[in-house]
Amino acid sequence: MGFIMERALLDEIKPFYVMDVLERAKAMERDGMDVVHLEVGEPDFDMPEPVRQAAIKALNEGHTHYTHSLGMIELREAIAADYAKRYGVTVDPEHIVVTNGTSPAIFLTFAALLEKGDEVIVSDPHYACYPNFIRLAGGEPRLVPTLEEDGFQFRAAAIRKAVTEKTRAVFLNSPSNPVGTLLPPERMKNVADIGLPVVSDEIYHGLVYGGQRDHTVLEFTKNCFVLNGFSKLYAMTGLRLGYLIAPEVHTRDLQKLCQNMFISPNSVSQWAGIAALTQCEEDVEQMKAIYDERRQYMVARLRDIGLGIAVEPFGAFYVFANAKKFGSDSYALAFDILEHAHVGVTPGTDFGQGGEGFIRFSYANSLENIERGLDRVERYLKTRMG
Which cofactor does it need (predicted)? Predict the structure, then answer.
């Protein structure tokens, strides 16, 4: 078990550029400017009513005390039942660790799994914070380039070439942030068959469109750490509720870390999570239908504008568009779009070297705002190219 927090390491951690964009956009709004937000990956929906009522009931009934350090057994049983229903896999509730959001679950995984100098294979591009979690746990991310024509998803052959004597895990993310694509099940199985522990970020599971289906890595191996939560699918970002499904051999270590660092997850949020899993299927389907309408519009419109989308995204709520013909510096381009078009977008460089030249657009906003925002982007790009 490794954990390191040195001043030099903190100095190496780069800013989360999407937050730089958001904070500048908020400053512009305070000055009276109208900004369309297509940068942030947060559902624009309010939490479903059954979730709200469950939280209120928990407060009214005094469920505001510490819970089991792994999380309430009722919630862990509901999570296990959800994975059985969705994927046909058996999960022992005793091997589920409930956390205050999915980010702590990522950190706990690497704190339990890594020693100083161990490597974790990560795709490039990738979610911006993955390498930071690995480094904070004493490890090193080993970035493996992925291809635009593959939807920036892994191929097992590339992973095998990157394995060294220091490799301790492979990190998967499907549906992915920033790209919104899915790893095909046969390729997921090929990755699992390599034999390394697989860390699978499944936070966008359920947000899949166009007749596609997501798969959990648990369908292909038990040698895995599954990360998931309630923020994205159930629009519960502020309730900070996530979980980790871990191999039995690691559960006690994870529990000790939780006891020392967090004591227990948020009690009220856990009751809300039970309601989300057991009462909100119709709410989720309604949100998904709206997301899908936005997705189809955004993909078509971005292509019309002249941005490249090699593989149509069918998951999450992102479109990762190739903007290289408009400039090689995505950070500068994103801020230029913000300053001149008043639209917030995320620079691809936020997601690793492989994301440079791309711009991430989020459709977690109303169709009306997406239309307004892309109108502005189109006018800006025409002016720039003119």
Answer: pyridoxal 5'-phosphate
140-145 and 198-201: which strand pairing? unpaired
Q: What is the pLDDT averaged over residues 185-192?
A: 97
Cα separation, 82 vs 79, in Å, equals 5
- Angle at 146 (CA atoms; ends 157, 332), nearest 5 degrees: 165
**pLDDT surpasses 70 at 117:** yes
Spatial neighbors of 50 by CB under 8 A, at least 6 apart, are 275, 276, 279, 280, 283
The secondary structure of 173-203 as a DSSP string is: ESS-TTT-----HHHHHHHHTT-S-EEEE-T
Instruction: Classify residue 222 as left (phi > 0), alpha (psi -120 to 50) or beta.
Output: alpha
* Tokens read off for 119: 């490597």
Mapping DSSP onto H, E and C, the string for 124-175 reads ECCCCCHHHHHHHCCCEEEEEECCHHHCCCCCHHHHHHHCCCCEEEEEEECC
Q: Are 168 and 196 in contact (CB under 8 A)?
A: yes
- The residue written with tokens 């013909």 in the block is 325
Query: Exposed, middle or buried: residue 284 (CB in 10 Å: 0-12, 13-18, 19+)?
Result: middle
Residue 38, phi then psi, degrees to nearest 5: -120, 20
pLDDT of res. 7: 58
CA distance 272 to 57: 9
Distance CA 267, CA 77 (A): 16
pTM of the model: 0.94
Here the tokens at position 314 are: 């069918």
